[in-house]
Amino acid sequence: MKIISFFLFGIYIAACFYLYFIQNQKIFNRKWAKPYTPKKAKIIYFKTSDGVKLEGAYTKNAEFLPLVLYFGGNANNVIEFLDKIAPKIKGFNFLGFNYPGYAGSEGTPSEKKILKYASEIFKKYRPDFVIGRSLGTAVAAYLASKYKFKGLLLITPFDSIEHIAKIKYPLFPIDLLLKYKFKEAEFIKKSGIPTVVIALKNDDIIPKVCLENLLKNIRNLKDIIWLDGVKHGEIYTYPDIYKIIRNSLEKLNKNEY
Fold it and tell me: Could you give the CA distance from residue 6 to residue 14 in angstroms, rounded to a whole number?
């Protein structure tokens, strides 16, 4: 029995090490953020305070329109959104940059760097609105906890990577193993910015309890838009998704909620 116990304990410890070392590629799934050449958006770059060059794009729909800063998911090249979706959302201009190590951006991703660079980008461009998608909702919520702007749109958000990991791996000491926690609920409860959430009725990635916990912490929640019949990673294939985003931004801009 002792031999079996030691064997099982060894497997458990090995599994802990495995989870620890693969978390970077799980949380920052950048292999899917493939290079993308836009047809409508304009490629731009941002140099961070520590010299990292981030690749991004600017979508100009017209002069003197409200500016929207966009943050993508953990497996996305933001330029695709800025080239395919943003040009359809008339009445707003859009801006976004890939996380470090994603597509044409230099560096390697980490929670500290992503939040730091997002803050630097915000302070340079001073957008009117911020949109976050999936992992990007935590980044957008972080900015909402630090700065003032007109409105926040969270697309398929969650309360924290930590909570998701604890649900997915209940037998492991996630508090000790997890390096990047992205505590979105902690960020958003410090914000009073008008917020709209676009969520899935049956999200195949975000546990329902994680969304519910986030919603309880949003102080100025204006609307929840529920979508059905689409998977988490395919939300931008939802029929007329651009109209849903556009209408949300327009109502936030006009204070119609």
Answer: 12
